[in-house]
Amino acid sequence: MHDMAVSLDEVEAPQEATLVPQPWSSLGMIAYEAIVEGILTGVLPAGTQISIDGAAKQLKMSNTPVREALSRLAAERLVLFSANRGYTVTPQITAEEYHRLFEARRTLELAAIRSAIIEPSAIARVATILHRLSATDASPEYKHYRAFNQADREFHLAFMRMSRNLFLCRAWEQLNFHLHIGRLYAGAGVIDLEEARTEHEKIFEAVQESNRKELLKRMGDHIKNAQSRLRRLVHQGN
Question: Where a domain ends, among 89, 117, 145?
Fold first, then answer.
């Protein structure tokens, strides 16, 4: 099924669906964010072949930053590279992969909390991120679910970093959890925004109190609940 790839130049889409440059700090990041947006919104569906020349032309830049962006996306498993076909967008995760992804995430995050060093600076960092999360919107517009997804990633990464275990943090980051889950939000938005906010606040209360036992329970419950709430989006995409 995935051999039926199409060129990015051949994808017929409305004008607003083309790759859109964003004001990031480098051309590589501009290319990366534009392609991520295309994938997460479904403008570049699974099987779409991404031409380096075509993307560079749309983004009005040279091939080098586009190539860098695609190389990063291949490492994050949002695109596949083939010597014959170049880069193509990967399928969304299957129901089984979804389960395994959450299982790995839960294992790593709870391991980090068990060894976490809870200091005032770490608590302040979580408070700042929580404030950003409280300002996010459940709208299905990309800019809204992207803002939630990024803040949610930073929220959980803050707890990973409390472990001060570089290997745990790298393993968690290499899951690219929020990128793959972000694809599920297209057309739906953050379907569990209010539940997520409530659970994040309860997690924060536990870390404020330096109550490790309660923190473990609340984080574990949050991950389990999120997995259950988002499961229907996986089935819609498969």
Answer: 89
